[in-house]
């Protein structure tokens, strides 16, 4: 039954890895922003499929192939429903990165004249503009850089304020009649802030531009309804939301998906083939060439069942409380700078910090010696680190299975690291 609160101690029993020790300490996993842990229910779902239903979906005519296809499509329906979409609006991908590249290369194909009149709105050339933000993960930046290079379009960038918020004043100046695509993250994987989707969508749609939402850091942590957000496309990855690696999803409005030329071509995405050409299936199958990630999709269906059973409002509230505690405790440390907005701004339970006088890798190693796993580096987001004068940061990211004690342990370890490396004589103020 869904509730507004959750008990992380009770949930932890579902996650086998959380019972282990690391370096002689209880394992504290605070790196879910990179990849989440998997509950037994997800592990069991994939194992059962492999043991009982392995077969070629949408191809075989035998009983097991039919059962496998049914499980595969049931998973699509459940994952689509989890984000408010219809099954035909959800394309299986290997991850969010593949989903964005699928879009960019589909638009590139349209720009070469593929897709006929239906693909006209995707065609780009000199004078057209693609808009991203300074806070993007490389996966939502480089594909658009490459698309601009292939088509002659111009890439434009919405900057950030000094406290890590998007400059909406600049967005209003940049997004205009030449804008064809506006691509941005729902939640920054470095700054943790929840971006103003409604305002950016309104600006884009006012000028007929398409909106591409990177929802990797929002779908696992917030109740997200993609059609209600009025975005045209969105991507998210299974491994960040209790699912396995190797599976993700591209959401798109049906009329757009059916007009977009495919990127990968081959078997299972066609209606008929001659030696001279081919005709393609409607979405989503037109984008699912070849053998699909079937057991992973089934496991992702189990993951959204688990999240639904806990309740996304409860998960959101739990992480908000952990995030507030994390910011407050980090704010007690001298010589520790938090990247991104502070308390009082909508954000998820994630914080990236720069510790004066200590490289992020050394901070991470110090925490790892205590069994605390965090992310160090530029988190595939070099431009945003450059914006705030940092080459790397230490990122602490929480999820439904984390506790306040674990947040405190991480902050106390950072304080102790400053003493250990000789950049302060005291710990937490």
UniProtKB/TrEMBL annotation:
Gene3D superfamilies membership: Aspartate Aminotransferase, domain 1 (3.90.1150.10), Type I PLP-dependent aspartate aminotransferase-like (Major domain) (3.40.640.10)
Catalytic activity: (sulfur carrier)-H + L-cysteine = (sulfur carrier)-SH + L-alanine
UniProt cross-references to Pfam families, sorted A to Z: Aminotran_5
Cofactor(s) it depends on: pyridoxal 5'-phosphate
EC number annotated for this UniProt entry: 2.8.1.7
GO molecular function, one term: pyridoxal phosphate binding
The Aminotransferase class V domain, residue ranges: 28-409
SUPFAM superfamilies (alphabetical): PLP-dependent transferases
InterPro entries: Aminotrans_V_dom (IPR000192), Aminotrans_V_PyrdxlP_BS (IPR020578), Cys_dSase_SufS (IPR010970), PyrdxlP-dep_Trfase (IPR015424), PyrdxlP-dep_Trfase_major (IPR015421), PyrdxlP-dep_Trfase_small (IPR015422)
Keyword field contains Transferase: yes
Coiled coil regions, renumbered to chain: none
Keywords, comma-separated and alphabetical: Lyase, Pyridoxal phosphate, Transferase
Gene Ontology biological-process annotations: cysteine metabolic process
Functional summary from the UniProt entry: Catalyzes the removal of elemental sulfur and selenium atoms from L-cysteine, L-cystine, L-selenocysteine, and L-selenocystine to produce L-alanine.
The family this protein is said to belong to: Belongs to the class-V pyridoxal-phosphate-dependent aminotransferase family. Csd subfamily.
Protein name as it appears in the record: Cysteine desulfurase
Organism: Leifsonia soli
């Amino acid at each position: 039954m869904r509730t507004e609160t959750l008990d992380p101690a009770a949930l932890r029993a579902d996650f086998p890895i959380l019972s282990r020790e690391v370096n002689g300490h209880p394992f504290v996993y605070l790196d879910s922003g990179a990849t989440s842990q998997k509950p037994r229910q997800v592990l069991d779902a994939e194992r059962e499929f492999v043991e009982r239903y392995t077969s070629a979906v949408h191809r075989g005519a035998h009983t097991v192939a039919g059962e496998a296809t049914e499980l595969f499509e049931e998973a699509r329906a459940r994952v689509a429903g989890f984000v408010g979409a219809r099954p035909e609006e959800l394309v299986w991908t290997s991850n969010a990165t593949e989903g964005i590249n699928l879009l960019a290369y589909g638009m590139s194909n349209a720009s070469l004249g593929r897709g006929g009149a239906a693909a006209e709105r995707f065609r780009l050339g000199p004078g057209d503009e693609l808009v991203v933000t300074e806070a993007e993960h490389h996966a939502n930046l480089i594909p658009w850089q490459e698309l601009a290079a292939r088509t002659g379009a111009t890439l434009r960038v919405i900057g950030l304020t000094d406290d890590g918020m998007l400059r909406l004043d600049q967005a209003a100046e940049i997004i205009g009649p030449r804008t064809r695509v506006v691509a941005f993250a729902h939640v920054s994987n470095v700054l943790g802030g929840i971006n103003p989707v409604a305002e950016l969508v309104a600006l884009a749609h006012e000028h007929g531009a398409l909106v591409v939402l990177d929802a990797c850091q929002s779908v696992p942590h917030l109740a997200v309804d993609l059609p209600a957000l009025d975005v045209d496309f969105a991507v998210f990855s299974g491994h960040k939301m209790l699912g396995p690696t190797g599976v993700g999803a591209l959401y798109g409005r049906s009329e757009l998906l059916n007009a977009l030329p495919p990127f990968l071509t081959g078997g299972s995405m066609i209606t008929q083939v001659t030696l001279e050409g081919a005709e393609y299936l409607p979405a989503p199958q037109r984008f699912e060439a070849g053998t699909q990630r079937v057991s992973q999709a089934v496991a992702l269906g189990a993951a959204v069942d688990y999240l639904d059973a806990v309740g996304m409002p409860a998960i959101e509230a739990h992480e908000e409380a952990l995030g507030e505690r994390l910011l407050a405790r980090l704010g007690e440390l001298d010589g520790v700078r938090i990247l991104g907005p502070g308390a009082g701004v909508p954000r998820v339970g994630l914080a990236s910090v720069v510790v004066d006088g200590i490289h992020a890798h050394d901070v991470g190693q110090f925490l790892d010696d205590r069994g605390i796993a965090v992310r160090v580096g530029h988190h595939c987001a070099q431009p945003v680190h450059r914006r705030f004068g940092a080459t790397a940061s230490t990122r602490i990211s929480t999820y439904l299975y984390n506790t306040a004690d674990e947040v405190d342990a991480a902050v106390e370890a950072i304080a102790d690291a400053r003493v250990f490396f000789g950049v302060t004589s005291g710990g937490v103020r």
